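Hi there, hope your week has been kind to you so far. For a while now I've been wondering how a particular protein folds. I'm sending you its amino acid sequence along with the backbone structure tokens. Could you read through the record and tell me how the tokens relate to the sequence? Take your time with it, there's no hurry, and the full record follows here.
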Amino acid sequence: MDIEKNIPIPAVPRETVFGFLYTMQVGDSVLLDTKDLNTPSLMASRAYAKKRYGKRFSLRTLPEGTRIWRVE
């Protein structure tokens, strides 16, 4: 086994299932189909966007699905 030095770590791709959250502007909203919704991933993406970028979102479950609004 050879030990190597100065090998750079590859960057992590920014593509996520909920990557659209990072491009939304205040006042924008999107309707997601509830049956296809991965709620834990959505909640984690929402928390990350708030912590990392200061973007806040509001979610409401409606008869036609879950709507997400960018509020700040």
User: Anything to note?
Assistant: The mean pLDDT is 84. Residues 39-53 form the longest helix (15 residues). The CA atoms of residues 8 and 71 lie 38 Å apart.
